[in-house]
Fold this sequence. Notes:
The first copy, chain A, is built from 4 helices and 6 strands, in the order H-H-E-E-H-E-E-E-E-H. Chain A has 155 residues and is of the alpha+beta class.
Amino acid sequence: MSDRELTPQQLAEACAESMFARDTASQNLGMRIESVAPGRAVLTMTVREDMVQGHGNCHGGFIFALADSAFAFACNTYDEATVGSGCSIDYLGPGQLGDLLTATAEERSRRGRTGIYDITVRNQHGQEVALFRGRSYKIRGTVRRLEETAAESQA
Amino acid sequence: MSDRELTPQQLAEACAESMFARDTASQNLGMRIESVAPGRAVLTMTVREDMVQGHGNCHGGFIFALADSAFAFACNTYDEATVGSGCSIDYLGPGQLGDLLTATAEERSRRGRTGIYDITVRNQHGQEVALFRGRSYKIRGTVRRLEETAAESQA
Amino acid sequence: MSDRELTPQQLAEACAESMFARDTASQNLGMRIESVAPGRAVLTMTVREDMVQGHGNCHGGFIFALADSAFAFACNTYDEATVGSGCSIDYLGPGQLGDLLTATAEERSRRGRTGIYDITVRNQHGQEVALFRGRSYKIRGTVRRLEETAAESQA
Amino acid sequence: MSDRELTPQQLAEACAESMFARDTASQNLGMRIESVAPGRAVLTMTVREDMVQGHGNCHGGFIFALADSAFAFACNTYDEATVGSGCSIDYLGPGQLGDLLTATAEERSRRGRTGIYDITVRNQHGQEVALFRGRSYKIRGTVRRLEETAAESQA
C-alpha cells in the first residue's frame, strides 16, 4: 500500500510501529505505546526495581527517558525524520517503585523545520510527575526509511 | 576518619566514590569519573554500538545521561544529599560511534537549598556536543548515608 | 474585612488589584488584567508602534514582558509574596502591529515554596505566539503588604 | 567603504552601531554597549528607581531585558539578520538600586541558521545576578539594511 492511500492516522501508526521496532532502548525499559496520532503519542512505563534509588524513588533519568521517547514518537508521526534539538524538564513529584507512569506528548507548534512539543508525565493516580518541553528539527529522510530499504532490497 | 578531618577535596572524592558504587546505571553505560572537586565533576563515556541510531549518531538520550550524571556528581560533592529539580539541554553536534565524550560540570550558583550547574559535553576533538544546565535542590540526608548506615550496623 | 472572610477567588482578585496598582511597568505597556483566579491570570496587551521592529513585528522583549506579568499575577493569587526564580520562552509566531495579545497563565504545580506555571500567548485569531514556563519561589511577606502598612499608618 | 574591506571586528562594530541607533527600548533603559566582537557583546545598565520593586530589588524583567539585548547584539555581529527563537533565564541574586549590571554574551555554537549564546549578568562586585541562554535563528536580510536603504535613497 502506498503512502497516498494512508490516512494521517494510519501514517502516524505506521511510523510509530517502525520506530519502536528498532528502538531497543525504549523496549528494554519496558515502555509501551498506548496510542499515537498526528503530532501526539502516549507511552507508559512501570517503575522497576532497577530504576529506583535508595529511597525507593525513580531516578530522574528514567522519567526523562520516558518523556523523551514520547516526544520522539509524537514528532515523527508524519514520516519525516525528525530529531530533538533541545528540551527542558521540570520534576514535580516522585515516581515510586511499581508506579505506572504515563507520558502524554502533544504538539504545540510545527512550522518549517521546527516544532515544539509538551509532554506531561503522570502516575496512575493522575498526579503530575514531570513536565517536559521538546524542540524538534526536521532532517532529511523518512521515518520508515530502514524498512523501505529492506523491502526494496528483497524485491 | 571523621568528616572534620577531611579536606573539601577529600570529601568531594569520598562522595563521588560512594555515589558511583551504587549507581549501576552510570556504570552500565561505561561512564568513568575522571575527576571531582567541590562543585565540579568530569565524566567520560565512549559511544558504543548500542547507543547509536540508524545513521551512526549517538542517541540524544545517552548524551543526556552522561551530562545528567556529571551534574549529579558535581552537586553532591559536599556530602549533602542533593537532587535535580529540573534541567535543559541543547544538542549542538552529533556524538558518533567510538567517540570519547567528556562531560565537564561546573557550579554556577549555590545558595540556600538550590544550585545551578553548567555541563558541557565535548568529543575527543574538543568539539562541543551538548550544553546542559541543571537546577539542584538539597534534600535531607547525606550522600554517604548508605555506607555509614552499613558501617554502623556492622559495629 | 479580614482575610478570613475572603473566598479564595476574592483573595486572588484583591492580590491582583494591589499588585497592579503599583506595577507601573505593566501599566505603561498598556496591559490589562482580564481575569484572575487562584493560580490563574489572563492579561491582554495591544502591540503598539513603539513595540515593533523594522518589519512591523513585535519585539520579543514585549511578548516576554506580557507573559512574565501574567506569570507574576498568577503565582501571587494566594497573598503569599512570590517571585520568579527562572523561566523559559519559545517564540512560535510573530505579534504584529495592532494585534491584541492575550497571555493565559495556569498553575501546573505548587508544592512547598516552589511552583511551575505555563503561560500561552495568543493573538486575536487564537494563534499561539509564544509559550512561557515559569518557576516561582515563595519569599517572606504578603502580596498586599504595602497597602496594609499604609492603612495601618493612617489608623 | 564596502563590506569586503571590513575586518570581522569592524563589521561587528558597524552592526552594533546600526542596531543600537534604532533600538530605542535599550536606549531608554540606559543600556550602553561596552564592547562587541564577532559572536560577543558586553552591555551595561544601572538599576534605576523606576526598575525596583517594593524591597529595592530590580524587577526581573529589566535584568531579562539587559541579557536579551546583549544576546541580540552578540548574534547580530555578522551582518546577517538574526532573531531569538527562544531562551531561558535563571535568577541567581538580586540587582539592587544603583547597581551597575554588566551582561556578557558569548557564542557557544553557530551552525547553519541556528546558534546558542550564553549571557551572564553580574553586578559591580562581580557577583552573578542571572544566567541566560538564548537560541538564535537567522532570517533573511542584513543587520545594516535600514541604513543602507536610507543611503541608497539619498544617492
